[in-house]
Specification:
There is one protein chain. This protein is of the alpha/beta class. The chain folds into 2 domains: about 5-170, Rossmann fold (3-Layer(aba) Sandwich), CATH 3.40.50.170; about 180-265, Methionyl-tRNA Fmet Formyltransferase, Chain A, domain 2 (Roll), CATH 3.10.25.10. Helix content is about 25%, strand content about 25%. It has 7 helices and 10 strands. Strands 2-1-3-4-5-6 form a 6-stranded mixed beta sheet, covered by helices on one side. A 4-stranded antiparallel beta sheet has the order 7-8-9-10. Strand 9 and strand 10 (about 260) form a beta hairpin. It starts with 6 loop residues before the first strand and ends in an 8-residue tail after the last helix. The relative contact order is 0.11.
Length: about 270
């Protein structure tokens, strides 16, 4: 089975990270994208009316793929997962890796089965986590690297020249679907981090949860009639300096992002730190 002309692929994706992979595949003249499948389109497809592709590629899909779809492409569906499986299965692997202080993560290409991130490994690549990485910057690198690895191994995979490796399921760890509440930092903890207590963890949280679910705290601000109102303050950017947390950019609920210095000048009654 030689691919002198093209490989027909169904692509499964749903967000800006999956677009990285799709655009990379579209630049390869050996590849023909037969169909782009989003979670919204998935329920409307009737496989009896479709021509089977050579393989499916899934990246950051965000939905469960039914069993009949898993077996529809001739060589199944390959999933680009942004972790070194079996570690950090699930929907938030980069966030978990940064939050836990990992120095290395990676990308794993697996052949999907009916369980989440459970299938055998086709290829795997390690990637360093930088001290400045947010989940966004890390995901961009991981999916970019995954796309390049995928294009390299696809012909060999489709020709059956790659021996798949079963994951060590006993070593599996799992991540959860994050909600806005996961990003909450109490004002007390934020003040302590600015003074140096637990600053590294708070810095990791801010980076891990950027841009989603975001890190935030609650403030009580005076209105024009001198009443106190609860307002959410998003912490967009921060860094560590001499073991202390330094806030760089924040955004008050209903306002535009500003530097922390500008925020303090505009709300001198708020005593967060410095």
């Amino acid at each position: 089975m030689h691919f002198k002309f093209f490989m027909v692929i169904w692509f499964f994706g749903s967000d800006k990270y999956s677009q990285i992979v799709l655009k990379s595949l579209q630049t390869d003249k050996r590849i023909k994208i037969g169909k782009i499948v989003s979670p919204q389109i998935l329920p409307t497809l009737s496989l009896e009316k479709e021509k089977r592709p050579d393989v499916g590629i899934l990246a950051s899909f965000g939905a469960i793929v039914p069993k009949d779809f898993l077996n529809f492409p001739r060589k199944g569906i390959l999933n680009i997962h942004p972790s070194l499986l079996p570690k950090y299965r699930g929907p938030s692997p980069a966030q978990a890796a940064i939050l836990n202080g990992e120095r290395q993560t990676g990308v794993t290409i697996i052949k999907m089965d009916e369980e989440i991130d459970h299938g055998p490994i086709v290829a795997q690549l390690a990637e360093e986590i930088l001290p400045t990485d947010t989940s966004e910057s890390l995901y961009f690198r991981l999916f970019s690297a995954g796309a390049e690895v995928l294009k390299t191994i696809l012909p060999a995979y489709l020709e059956g020249r790659i021996e798949l490796q079963e994951q060590n399921h006993s070593a599996a760890t799992y991540t959860k679907r994050l909600s806005r509440e996961d990003g909450f930092i109490s004002l007390e903890k934020l003040k302590e981090a600015i003074k140096g207590a637990n600053a590294e963890f708070v810095d990791r949280q801010i980076r891990a949860y950027y841009p989603w679910p975001g890190s935030w705290t609650n403030l009580k601000l005076k209105t024009k009639n001198s009443k106190l109102n609860n307002k959410r303050l998003k912490i967009l950017k921060a860094h560590l300096e001499h073991g202390k947390l330094v806030l760089d950019q924040v955004q008050l609920e209903g306002k535009k992002p500003v530097s922390f210095k500008q925020f303090c000048e505009g709300y001198p009654e708020v005593k967060i730190g410095y």
